Amino acid sequence: MTDANETAWTAEGGKAIPNAVNEGSEGAGFQPGDGVVEEASGPQEALSADRTPEEEFLAQMLAATGATNLEEAGLYDPAEVAAEEERIEEEMSPEERQAKAEHDALAAAFNMIRERSNEGKLTTPGTWAAAGIVPDHLIPVDFSDLAFDEIIAAQAASAAAKKVAEEAAQAAVADADAVSADSSVEDVAASCSKADEAAGEHAPSVDEDDSNTSDAGDSLDSEIETPEWKLDDIKVLEGKQTYLYSSDYMTDTYAHWAFLAEEGDDTLTLVENAREESRLYPRPMLATSLSSKPYYWSAEQIEQAWQAVQESGSYPDIKTCEASNGERYFYSTDYLSDAQAKALAEWYSVERYMNV
Asked: At 123, is the secondary structure helix, strand, or coil?
């Protein structure tokens, strides 16, 4: 950067944008009541010529917003942010560095659960290790234990807070009901007002400042620690290994099907899908639906699973039928008769298209 251009950079807030409009200067920039920018002086025109296209764009953007530097405009130089984070980390003790590494890794792990759930995928502790988010000072199994401890603690704290809030609400209702029938309207209103105040005092909140919290609220805060993580959406499935998903992004039903797919028990997968389809809709399950997400079975795999179901003798309710076009279905006689299954198969594969 040239000396002339360097002098045009404002000093406030660290590194700023060259030639940003200085609201305190005279003869330049926006003046109260003006709708245009006055012509810049000769030296400013020279400095503008020295700017890079990026610097000129940022200077114009800041001038339009009235900001004098990046920070005022809500923008930050990534290099400066990284340098500041590095400086802070260098000043940490070894224990503080490890704690930060664990916190950052946990945040990444919980975000991964939600991102993968949004993609229709379950997450295992091995997924974290494969992604390289395990801190250097921990082995994968120790990090997994730490993550599960945090999930359990956060959900327990959240449940305790909800219980206290529910009890406070119930107490408020009980107080209102206790008002005698012959009480005046003013007495009833006062009682309801007190009930609302009591509920507000006992309801835990992470948004209110301590200075705005009553003595009762302060006592509650001391008894129930606000969880650092909000993890009520994280669910766990146990099988050959442990799976996690977020109920904010994946339904429990789909998680169960994804779980079966991950477990690799084709026989049980076919059986449970056929039963669920027969019970829920009710209708027989189209065999080729097992070729879709999350299973992606081939025709050969579907046939092998059906043979395994027959040979096991453990699932006498599971049967098969075909529509007139040759499409195959599976169903459970616990929920559909043979005649119902056959009729529904014909409807879904053939007749409904004839009526369109």
From this structure: strand
Query: pLDDT tens across 174-192, in order?
Result: 888 777 555 655 555 555 5
pLDDT at 189: 56
Q: Could you tell me if 329 and 285 are in contact, meaning their C-beta atoms sit under 8 angstroms apart?
A: yes
Residue 183: per-residue pLDDT: 61
Residue 29, phi-psi category: left (phi > 0), alpha (psi -120 to 50), beta (remainder): left
User: Which stretch of DSSP H or E encloses residue 156?
Assistant: helix 140-177
Q: What is the pLDDT of residues 95-145, one digit of tens each?
A: 999 999 999 999 999 999 999 999 999 999 999 999 999 999 999 999 999
Contact 257/298 with Cβ under 8 angstroms?
Answer: no
Task: Return the HEC string of the chain.
Answer: CCHHHHHCECCCCCCCCECCCCCCCCCCCCCCCCCCCCCCCHHHHHHHHHCCHHHHHHHHHHHHHCCCCCCCCCCCCHHHHHHHHHHHHHCCCHHHHHHHHHHHHHHHHHHHHHHHHHCCCCECHHHHHHHCCCCCCCCHHHHHHHHHHHHHHHHHHHHHHHHHHHHHHHHHHHHHHCCCCCCCHHHHHHHHHHHHHHHHHHCCCCCCCHHHCCHHHHHHHHHCCCCCCCCCCEEEEECCCEEEEECCCCCHHHHHHHHHHHHCCHHHHHHHHHHHHHHHCCCCEEHHHHHCCCCCCCHHHHHHHHHHHHHHCCCCCEEEEECCCCCEEEEECCCCCHHHHHHHHHHHHHHHHHCC
Task: Count CB atoms within 10 A of the CB of residue 195.
Answer: 21
> pLDDT tens, 112-124?
999 999 999 999 9
| Regions of the chain where pLDDT drops below 70 | 1-49, 70, 180-227, 356
Sequence letter at residue 210: D
CA atoms within 13 Å, Cβ hemisphere of 221: 15
pLDDT on residue 90? 81
Pairing of strands 242-246, 234-238: antiparallel
